[in-house]
Amino acid sequence: MTGGGHVRSANAETRFSGQGPGVQTSDGCSVELYRRLPYLGEIDLLKSLLRPGMSVLELGCGTGRLTSVLLSLGAIVTAVDNSREMLAHAPAGARLVHSDIEALDLSGRFDLVLLASCMINHFDGGVRAAFLRAAKAHVKADGRFVLQRQDPSWLRSAQVGAVRQVGNFTVVVEAVRRSAGVVEMTLKYQEADLAWTHSFAVVPLDEQDLQRELANAGFGSLEWLDPARRWAGVSMTGRVEFSDG
């Protein structure tokens, strides 16, 4: 989970926190950490969807790591975040908007609305619904909504001590607790002699779960954009209906 645009829900303060050099946002993300994290090709898969001059709304842009790439691909970017400290590092080539996602009310609609950083996995269903309502309200009728989810298998199986590399950063699972479908986790990011921790709460979203929430928000069927099925493009037509049975 990255910083930027999280809705403030009833017990979010106790489930999101962070420590380390620099400022931490309301959802526990460290601005300096996200300023330093490298771009690892996460949205290269959008190259086929973008054309020069396309309008893109980026929800929860953080320090603008993805914003810079969107600009380099010729997009006209409006980048939204609820942290002024994050936005201070975002590229000036974008239109920068300081706002919570759920309060966003911009004039006009966009060719593409992007919700990255696995924010759709927020533990609070009301928050997830608010994210989707904001996306639906700002995408053109013939536009596309693109989102990134966390790998549900990893959320269900990751154990304390698990390690992975993100550029120059070593990322370690320091704590994990699972209860009633919610995964509470603390990750430690280490770069040389600097370290940051981020504690957060998320839910694993299987494809059926995600499609149901999208349908409830008025979206059509999703299309996976990558083999790992973490990035989905969502159409505005062909609404899918789900029954409880």
Molecular structure report:
- The protein has 245 residues and is α/β, with parallel strands linked by helices.
- The protein has 2 domains: 12-150 and 204-239, Rossmann fold, CATH 3.40.50.150; 153-202.
- The protein has 6 helices and 12 strands.
- It has helices spanning 31-36, 65-72, 84-87, 125-138, 152-157, 207-216, and strands at residues 17-19, 55-59, 76-81, 95-98, 110-115, 139-148, 163-166, 169-179, 182-191, 194-202, 220-224, 231-239.
- The strands form 2 sheets. A 7-stranded mixed β-sheet has the order 4-3-2-5-6-12-11, sandwiched between helices. A 5-stranded antiparallel β-sheet has the order 1-10-9-8-7, with no helix packed on it.
- α2 (65-72) links the parallel β2 and β3.
- The longest helix has 14 residues, at 125-138.
- The protein is globular, with a radius of gyration of 17 Å.
- 39% of the residues are buried.
- The model is unreliable at 1-10 and 240-245 (pLDDT under 50).
Features:
disordered C terminus, 20% helix, 7-stranded mixed sheet, Rossmann fold, 5-stranded antiparallel sheet, 6 helices, alpha/beta
| Average residue-wise pLDDT | 92
Total domains, how many? Answer: 2
Shape: globular
Instruction: Assign the structural class, choosing from mainly alpha, mainly beta, alpha/beta, alpha+beta, or little secondary structure.
Output: alpha/beta
**The CATH architecture of the largest domain:** 3-Layer(aba) Sandwich
Helical content stands at 10-25%
Unreliable sequence segments: 1-10, 240-245
Strand order of the largest sheet: 4-3-2-5-6-12-11
Largest sheet: 7 strands, mixed
Q: What is the C-alpha radius of gyration, as a whole number of Å? A: 17 Å
Order of SSEs: EHEHEHEEHEHEEEEHEE
Any idea what the CATH superfamily of the largest domain is called?
A: Vaccinia Virus protein VP39
Terminus-to-terminus distance: 33 Å
Q: What is the C-level CATH assignment of the largest domain?
A: Alpha Beta
Q: How many helices in DSSP terms?
A: 6
How many distinct beta strands? 12
- Find the CATH topology of the largest domain: Rossmann fold
